[in-house]
Description:
The protein has a domain at 1-20 and 27-42. Helices cover 20% and strands 18% of the residues. It has helices at residues 34-40, 47-50, and strands at 9-13, 29-33. A two-stranded antiparallel sheet has the order 1-2. It is globular, with a radius of gyration of 11 Å. The protein starts with 8 loop residues before the first strand and ends in a 6-residue tail after the last helix.
Amino acid sequence: MDARHPFGFTSDHLVPLSRGGQPLDPANARPAHRRCNSSRGNRTTTAKTERRSRQW
């Protein structure tokens, strides 16, 4: 799958980097679809992020 595909894999930071999250901390990362990660922006939680379409 193309890396730019909306359902491609990205690493989503639980605490966004713009809010002081650590980029290399494994506890601050989770898998996300590119579309889901982009729509979340720099918010810390939303109802959308709790839904999972697949088990990564």
